[in-house]
């Protein structure tokens, strides 16, 4: 009986080709991915800096690409997007990628606190080299995720070359079985953005009859290889926080006629630092020195600029001219107990070295206090410059030293001063650590790159508005909005600064070829098996029953 049923089953396949799919479709379903969604990923990425300084281009000039992902060791042409950890790529490799590859995607460390000092220095030097170059290919940075780790491992084990594979068969099998990735970023074409930096200043008026003014200044922006990742804790959230804390301390002393100092104190916070050649302070000085009413900066004794004062090194005074004995800079140097570094202003350089040089060019005595030994320190322009408890401790200590030195100079306290006077001022100069920590964490928790803080819908918004409100608690504050000359701009910023990357898991072309051959061979076998099934059945029935099946 079962032979008769088998005969009926054979008749079904004898003349109807579509029924072959009853065999083929289940096999295709089994071969399909269990989770198709896992074949694609979506991540936020941050584009490398793009700006022009005196019409000289810097940074990345492109934004979109659709390329095959490759590792540092397997890429070869402009059709590849190189994907790597930022700590793995060398400056020489970046130079080669810059000139030959189609795009570059760098993954930041999972936790920068576990990096060795050598690794941090390597990343900082790489960032400095990248910013100084003009890069035609799109360059993006992204935060570490477990998915990125898997992608990096797949790319590192894919496309094994002959010299790395044990045998030719191993290389062939690896090329067929390896996972590839198509990386796509669709972002707007880079466009110029309207930048309006804001300078905030407030003044504590000294005793009548003393025309002298002391300027205490810092820039509050930050610099990193990617604008949206530029948190700048040391450079220069620390300087901005110090200005706010010094304003709080001396506003208490100047609020009483009995403790008010002789010189007036002018506190200044500017929006553009060394990356844009201190444009804000330059415009601010022009507005207040070249105008008919220049009373704000009349008889300036000296300008003290604060830059990067929370790193581990001791404070150092940077000057354009060696401080002369009897002068104000020498007085501050001796009272603070800091060494000095002398560097002449070189107007031929693309950017000035320190904040105080803008004052010195206008013949105002000035200096910069910093924990950095040199203006070329790569930590000034790093995405690794983030908040830490150690840096907070250094900042509190350095603000205290600066406050004591400044107060000692203002009130002319000497070693012979009575202990009562010293105790009185030490008590008045106490640092409010809670306030310092709050502002240090606030400024260090967000990007303060000029692309972000100078291009809002209203100039006085975000960080600038917060600093203006904080400083206005201690004195009357004025905010000056500066504009860039559109005919001959000193600098130009570009957007976009961030985008979304889509990573699709794909197989290499050779896999498609082999899969096609395998499918054709499989269908051919199925076709002939079904076509010859009746003949096979007749022979089998004859063998089992000893009779020929008659149709």
Explained architecture:
It is found in: Endoplasmic reticulum membrane. One of its GO terms (biological process) is regulation of signal transduction. The chain crosses the membrane at residues 20-39, 509-530. The protein is an alpha/beta fold. It has three domains: 38-191 and 498-507; 196-483, Zn peptidases (Aminopeptidase, 3-Layer(aba) Sandwich); 508-551, no CATH class. The protein is built from 17 helices and 20 strands. It has helices at 2-15, 21-31, 91-100, 117-132, 146-157, 168-177, 233-254, 279-289, 328-336, 356-361, 389-410, 419-428, 433-444, 450-453, 463-471, 509-531, 533-545; strands at 40-47, 50-53, 56-60, 65-70, 80-85, 103-107, 134-135, 139-142, 180-185, 191-193, 198-204, 213-219, 264-270, 300-306, 316-319, 340-342, 366-370, 477-481, 491-495, 498-506. The strands form three sheets. An eight-stranded mixed beta sheet has the order 16-15-17-14-12-13-11-18, sandwiched between helices. Strands 1-8-6-5-4-9-20 form a seven-stranded mixed barrel. Strands 7-3-2-19-10 form a five-stranded mixed beta sheet, with helices on one face. Helix 7 (233-254) runs antiparallel to helix 13 (433-444). The longest helix has 23 residues, at 509-531.
């Amino acid at each position: 009986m079962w032979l008769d049923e088998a005969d009926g089953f054979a008749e079904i396949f004898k003349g109807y080709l579509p029924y072959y799919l009853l065999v083929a479709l289940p096999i295709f379903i089994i071969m399909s991915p269990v989770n198709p969604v896992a074949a694609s990923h979506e991540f936020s990425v941050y584009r490398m800096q793009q700006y022009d300084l005196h019409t000289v281009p810097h940074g990345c000039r492109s934004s979109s690409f659709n390329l095959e992902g490759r590792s540092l060791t397997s890429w070869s042409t402009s059709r590849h997007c190189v994907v790597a950890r930022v700590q793995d790529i060398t400056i020489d490799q970046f130079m080669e990628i810059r000139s030959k590859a189609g795009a570059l995607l760098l993954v930041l460390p999972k936790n920068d606190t576990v990096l060795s000092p050598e690794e941090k220095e390597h990343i900082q030097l790489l960032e400095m080299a990248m910013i100084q170059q003009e890069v035609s290919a799109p360059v993006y940075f992204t935060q570490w995720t477990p998915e990125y780790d898997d992608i990096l491992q797949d790319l590192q084990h894919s496309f094994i070359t002959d010299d790395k594979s044990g045998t030719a068969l191993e290389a062939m099998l690896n090329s067929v079985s390896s996972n590839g990735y198509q990386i796509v970023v669709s972002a707007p074409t880079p466009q110029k953005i309207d930048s309006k930096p804001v300078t905030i200043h407030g003044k504590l008026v000294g005793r009548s009859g003393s025309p002298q003014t002391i300027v205490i200044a810092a820039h509050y922006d930050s610099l990193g290889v990617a604008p949206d990742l530029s948190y700048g804790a040391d450079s220069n959230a620390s300087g901005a926080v110090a200005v706010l804390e010094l304003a709080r301390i001396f506003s208490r002393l100047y609020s009483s006629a009995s403790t008010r100092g002789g010189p007036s104190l002018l506190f200044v916070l500017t929006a553009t630092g060394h990356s844009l050649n201190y444009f804000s302070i330059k415009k601010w000085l022009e507005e207040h020195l070249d105008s008919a009413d220049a009373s704000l900066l009349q008889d300036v004794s000296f300008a003290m600029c604060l830059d990067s004062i929370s790193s581990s090194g001791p404070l150092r005074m940077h000057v354009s001219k060696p401080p002369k004995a009897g002068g104000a800079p020498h007085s501050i140097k001796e009272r603070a107990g800091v060494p000095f570094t002398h560097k002449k202003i070189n107007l031929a350089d693309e950017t000035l070295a320190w904040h105080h040089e803008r004052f010195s060019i206008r013949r105002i005595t000035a200096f910069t206090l910093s924990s950095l030994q040199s203006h070329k320190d790569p930590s000034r322009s790093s995405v690794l410059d983030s908040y830490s408890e150690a840096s907070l401790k250094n900042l509190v200590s350095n603000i205290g030293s600066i406050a004591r030195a400044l107060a000692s100079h203002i009130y002319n306290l000497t070693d012979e001063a009575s202990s009562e006077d010293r105790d009185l001022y030490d008590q008045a100069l106490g640092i409010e650590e809670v306030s310092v920590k709050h502002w240090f964490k606030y400024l260090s928790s967000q990007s303060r790159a000029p692309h972000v803080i100078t291009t809002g819908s209203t100039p006085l918004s975000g960080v600038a508005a917060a600093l203006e409100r904080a400083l206005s608690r201690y004195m009357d504050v004025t905010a000056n909005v500066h504009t860039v000359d559109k005919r001959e701009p000193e600098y130009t910023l570009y957007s976009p600064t961030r985008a979304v990357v889509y990573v699709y898991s794909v197989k290499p072309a050779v896999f498609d070829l082999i899969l096609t051959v395998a499918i054709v061979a499989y269908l051919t076998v199925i076709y002939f098996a079904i076509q010859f099934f009746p003949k096979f059945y007749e022979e089998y029935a004859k063998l089992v029953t000893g009779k020929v099946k008659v149709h």
